[in-house]
């Protein structure tokens, strides 16, 4: 399901969340993690809902399984392409990087500048500053070939 490098990244993420290092993610681990991220008023109900997804104690194996289920839930490539086409009235296959960045940072689930830069690091952008969104959709749904 995952490549070895991905598993290592998931181990690191799990270790960051497992604050007390007991090998199980608990409500207090989640609360502490949120606190470190600056979100202090997380409701116990929210945390309980997160933990229920594991259907029992969330050890590393369960954590990996949950991520696998979430990643398999990624929108199909056609849906992502259709969304990009809304920003490409000329059907050129490209969207302008600067205009797209502005939209990402000001509309709906606003991206942070760091999140935009992370996405642009993967995005195929030509010298004119246009994103090849068909290639980007492929990367989103299949992974970046450069990672291999």
Automatic annotation (TrEMBL):
Q: Where is the EF-hand domain?
A: 5-40, 75-110
**Keyword Calcium assigned:** yes
- Which keywords does the record carry? Calcium, Metal-binding, Repeat
GO MF terms, alphabetically ordered: calcium ion binding
Coiled-coil regions listed in the entry: none
Pfam families assigned: EF-hand_5, EF-hand_7
Name of this protein: Myosin light chain 7
Q: Which species? A: Anolis carolinensis (Green anole)
Which gene is the coding source of this polypeptide chain? Answer: MYL7
